[in-house]
């Protein structure tokens, strides 16, 4: 199984699939914001940034997945984005399931001064006047952060499999001259 994941990490098609899935999640979030008029909270903005990290990671690997530097940089960024996104989605779910005055999110995103994503891309990363503990949308009894826990968990599991597969030795194939 690990040999399969290692082989996939060398193929552009696998990284392109990651781009498509992450772009699908990003497009869904933008549809909810601009199409349905649901304003994102600060935690939603952080979750979007984690999904954007997945897109950037896959695009780095798409450049040349066989090059060690590109592949490893992509895998590391993929893992960081997936794990950080999972932790943010868990905290966001906690805000919604256990609302209290002392368990609140910030009113403004806390981006570094050198990377103010909310000012650079306000249509994507600027939060609306929404409290993180309010659930604006549900499907099958789950809110958006709970669905994102599922999505980021899947991203994290596949990241772990791909990471472990990088340490698997591949069998050298000998080609017979007289075959």
From TrEMBL:
It is found in: Cell inner membrane; Cell membrane. It is a multi-pass membrane protein. Its main location: membrane. Disulfide bonds join 41-44. Keywords: Cell inner membrane, Cell membrane, Chaperone, Disulfide bond, Electron transport, Membrane, Oxidoreductase, Redox-active center, Transmembrane, Transmembrane helix, Transport. One of its GO terms (biological process) is protein folding. Residues 32-49 are periplasmic. GO terms for molecular function: electron transfer activity; protein-disulfide reductase activity. InterPro entries: DiS_bond_form_DsbB/BdbC (IPR003752), Disulphide_bond_form_DsbB (IPR022920), DsbB (IPR050183), DsbB-like_sf (IPR023380). GO terms for cellular component: plasma membrane. The keyword Chaperone applies. The chain crosses the membrane at residues 45-63, 70-90, 147-165. Residues 1-14, 166-179 are cytoplasmic. Belongs to the DsbB family. Required for disulfide bond formation in some periplasmic proteins. Acts by oxidizing the DsbA protein. This is Disulfide bond formation protein B. It comes from Haemophilus sputorum.
């Amino acid at each position: 199984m690990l040999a399969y994941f290692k082989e996939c990490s060398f193929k552009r098609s696998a990284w392109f699939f990651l781009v498509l899935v992450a772009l699908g999640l990003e497009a869904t979030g933008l549809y909810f914001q601009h199409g349905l008029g649901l304003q994102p909270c600060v935690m939603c903005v952080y979750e979007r940034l984690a999904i954007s990290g997945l897109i950037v990671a896959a695009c780095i690997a798409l450049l040349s997945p066989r090059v060690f530097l590109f592949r490893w940089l992509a895998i590391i960024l993929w893992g960081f984005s997936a794990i950080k996104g999972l932790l943010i989605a868990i905290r966001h779910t906690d805000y919604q399931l256990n609302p209290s005055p002392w368990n609140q999110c910030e009113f403004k995103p806390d981006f570094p001064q050198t990377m103010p994503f909310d000012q650079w891309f306000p249509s994507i990363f600027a939060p609306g006047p929404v409290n993180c503990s309010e659930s604006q949308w549900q499907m099958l009894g789950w809110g958006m952060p709970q669905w994102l826990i599922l999505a980021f968990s899947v991203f994290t599991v596949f990241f772990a499999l791909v990471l472990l597969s990088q340490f698997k030795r591949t069998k050298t194939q000998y080609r017979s001259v007289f075959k």
